[in-house]
Amino acid sequence: MDLLTRGEELVLLAVWRLQGNAYTVPIREQLIEVSDKKWSLGSVYEALDRLEKKKYLESYLSEPMKSRGGRSKRIYKHTKDGLKAMIELRNAQNAIWNGISIPAIEREL
Amino acid sequence: MKKDYGYKNPPRFAERMLKRLYKYKKPDTRIGDFGEIFNDIYHNAGKSKAWTWYMMQVILSFFRRTEKAAIGSQIMLKNYFKIALRNIQRKKGYTLINIMGLSIGLAFCILILLYVRDEYSYDKFHENAENIYRVTLLRYNPDGSIKSMNSNQSIPLGPALCSEIPGIESFIRFKRLKHYVRKDEIVNDENVLYADTSVFKVFSFGLLSGNPGSVLEDMNSVVLSKDAAGKYFGDDDPIGSSLFIKLNEEYEEFIVTGTAENIPGNSTIKFDFLLPFKKLTTSVSPYRNNADRWDFVSIQTYIKTLPELDNHDLTETLQDFTLRHSREYVELLREREKFADDALVLSYDLQRLTDIHLSSFSSPKYSYILSGIALMILLIACINFTTLSIGLSSSRSKEIGMRKVIGARRSQLALQYWGETVIISLFALLAGIILSWSALPLFNNIVGKELDLTFSGIMTYFPVILGLVFFTSLFAGGYPALVISGFKPVYVLQKRLKLSGSNTFTRALVVIQFALSLFLINSTLIMSKQFDYTRESSPGYDKENIIQIPLKDAGWERTSAQFKNALSSSSLIKDFTASNNELGSNNSSGRRYFYNGATYTINIFSVEQNYVDFLDLEIVNGRDFKQDPAAEIKNAVIVNESLIREFDMTDPVGKPIPGYSQDPAKAPIIIGVVRDYMFQSFYHDINPVMISADFYMRYSRLLVRVYPGKIHEAVQYLNETWNEIVPDIPFSYTFLDESMETKYRNDRLWNRIVGYGSVIAIFIAGIGLFGLITLTSGIRTKEIGIRKILGASPDVIVRLLIKDYLYLLAAGIFITTPLTYIVLGKWLDNFAYRISLGVDLFVLGGMISVFSVIAVMSIQAVKAAVTDPVDSLRYE
Questions:
Q1: Which of B735, B756, B787 is the last residue of a domain?
Q2: How far, in Å, CA of B55 to CA of B467, rounded?
Q3: Closest Cα of chain B to A48: distance in Å?
């Protein structure tokens, strides 16, 4: 599996959560909410572009929308590879954290 | 859930720029994303926030692009820097001229930025600022336009609004009065503000001590500002101590229940002493007798609405409310002024707290004027840069040619050139910040503010300042970058291309520079001339050595004998009189009445019998009061010519003032006519005046004319006399000529600012010209040498070099004259008595500029003209 950066990982998951409405604006909102950091549009584009290049995501255009001044959204969804990558990510995550309990860490604090 | 407001378009040019920046990506959806967020911010935080955000996106995206482009050519970039710094080093003089001009321009802009920020920050510090409004009463014209706006309201209005209109949460009424405040031996005349109890809950004035909910609960409580507490109590804790305040005839005891932080400079509502409003409506005359009346208007009323309400939501409710409470008055007006049946006549309205400063106390106009001057100066500096760069470009043509041959693209070269401009602009910015910081005290002094420039302050403006530098460098360096990068390498390397110091574009720019400087010079001259005119021309009476003493509660009826006795026995005092009006003041008391289908307004001067003589007014018809025995004063009045004109009277002496009184026995009879004199300031026309020696209006001013040179002794004597006769009232006085001066203070201030601006503009344009002539004479060294060998005398050469610029100056004068004429003509219309715009001023302005141009240019031209031709021809 390619190692993803944290940003790419967050974007990959955000796309999953948004199911079908995953375009830049709500993805960015999600990221801001989850990470409590300011994300510029550019950084979201950056991550999306890279994920698309790695063939984890694919995109299609929506109908032009009035609320966007007659422009369409580019909506992202996972490819098969992307879905596999997510499972791998989750497994790897679990493996990394396996055996580490938060109360134990807190005791050290 | 998001509301659907419809799509707001982001700024067009910015959108286009973004599109270009993302042209390799998928621009359309991206522009859509930006547009969507723009709309989001627009509806949540307002237009300006959204604009700022959008512009920041453009700038950030731009840097992102250039950064990416630069990474590939890091080595080149290093080389560019090296070349830029070498160029700066090699041409120290020109760089100095450029940096000097730009830094002064930028410094000016930074100062103006501070000023404008302050102007627009008024009252925004209140937490509830968005929901606080001042109640105003609008009167309409029959055609639906607004006739007048009054912010003084009646006492019962506030409670009525609050209880009858559900959206209004609370109300605060304010009344400012002057009272004497006493503590032990200290007595001062102080401004006291009465306010409703909840003032600290609605407005965010900080309390240092005391409970915000209850400090004004008690009838005899007072809240002091930090300054006032220090003034009366020093370092002691004032809470619980007492102060004595004279509300009516007697001093009353008040207990200090709280101290407040000093009010920020950008607050419309200011106070040092805060008393409960209840006190005003129960104890202070005339307010206590009128506490229930709707037609007694003198109170400022503020309300706080529920957070989700906008002032427009309440417009209709307020219109109903107005009808409910003043139906009779509305019907009367509707009848008299012939309104249509459904037309609005009168309505209460809400004015945002944050709008009050700019609409009532200041004006956005001032911000515009200042920004205009700053931009003019910056533009002049930018033009220096452009003309000098173009002039200098020939020395770099080989470098450009070489780069092109090796394979540089035009855009790269343009970017390189522009980059150099950015570097210079950044240097200029640094110098500009230091400059503005050191000029701040002077600037504060001129505009009468307390602005502060701190490091963190600069950081908050940083995006704006960077934007300023960005555009400055674009204006200054954009054109040279395009021209220079467009050289054809073959011509350049074959030396077929000859770039001289002045092409058509340079000439045009120099003309603009001249025009701008001239505009400022002419404006300064015209403004000063107007002030000299107001100062020197006679107001129609003898205004020298007059001291005006406010009588306040001195009770002239009781004390006049004592005063008269003391004043007439002094050898310092030439003459004295008393009047109900302050001379030179903009407000006067008078009477307005309908007569024969027209409205007449007559100013009434109630005076002592010697008034006409005292002021040395010229009697053109009839006689003065003085010759009359006392009994004859009744109904006898002296009027001015303006009144005679107003009523179109012939042979007025002995006739009554038309329509003034229903009862012929009481009608004022004209016994004399005086020539018009300016009892107000020069902003006002002379209105009809009726002078009466019949004591029926309370005197407010004692006027004393002292002997010249004895002013200080006289004031001393007056003070002592005053303290003897009315010891419990503080003595104060004004000099007539000084208080007249303060009337023109605002305009004089703008005169000074424009004056400073024009000096700076001339200076920057001057050094630019100096650079330009140095350049041209350098380029024409050989030509001059040959001319001299062929027998040209130095003055022919000097003329040759300067002649061109004088033509340009003439063009500048040609452009600027009509402009000045229109703009300054508008300004002069503010004055009822104004100078006419004659040719002389423009000639003077032109002469000043011609001489400056010749002076600046001669230095270099003469130098070129007297150089030994041998040296100049050997020069390779």
A1: B735
A2: 9
A3: 12
**pLDDT computed for residue B2 by the predictor:** 45
Q: Within A21-101, where are the H helices?
A: 24-35, 41-53, 80-97
Residue range(s) defining the domain that contains residue B29: 1-72
Residues B276 and B316 in one domain: yes
Contact A40/B61, CB-based, under 8 Å? no
- In chain A, which residues have their Cβ closer than 8 Å to the Cβ of B37? 25, 41
Contacts of A40 in chain B (CB under 8 A): 60
Instruction: Tell me what pLDDT residue B26 has.
Output: 65
B672 and B561 part of one domain: yes
Question: Is A71 in CB contact (< 8 Å) with chain B?
Answer: yes
Distance from CA of B22 to the nearest CA of A (A): 11
B29 chain-A contacts, CB cut-off 8 A: 23-24, 61, 71-74
- For A66, nearest residue in chain B (alpha carbons): B7
Assigned token pair, B366: 């001032």
| Rounded-to-integer distance, Cα B590 and Cα B657, Å | 14
Structural tokens at position A99 = 């055996």
Per-residue pLDDT of chain A (109 residues; tens, 9 = 90+): 567 888 888 999 999 999 888 999 999 998 888 888 888 888 888 889 889 888 899 988 888 887 787 888 889 999 999 999 999 889 988 888 888 888 888 888 7
Determine the pLDDT at residue B69: 64
pTM: 0.66
- The answer as to whether B358 is a domain residue is no
Nearest chain B Cα to A24, which residue?
A: B33
Same domain, B616 and B757: no
B357 lies in a domain? no
The number of distinct structural domains making up chain B is 5
**Of B343, B372, B391, the domain-final residue:** B343
Domains and CATH numbers, chain A: 6-95 (1.10.10.10)
Q: Are B479 and B456 contained in the same domain?
A: yes
Q: Give me the DSSP letters along B834-876.
A: -----HHHHHHHHHHHHHHHHHHHHHHHHHHHHS-HHHHHH--
CB contact, 8 Å: B550 with chain A? no
Q: Are residues B592 and B460 in the same domain?
A: no
ipTM reported for the complex surpasses 0.90: no
Low-confidence ranges of chain B (pLDDT < 70): 1-5, 24-27, 68-74, 492-503, 586-589, 597, 626-633, 695-696, 875-876
A80: exposed, middle or buried (C-beta count within 10 Å: 0-12, 13-18, 19+)? exposed
Distance (Å, rounded) from C-alpha B376 to C-alpha B270? 36
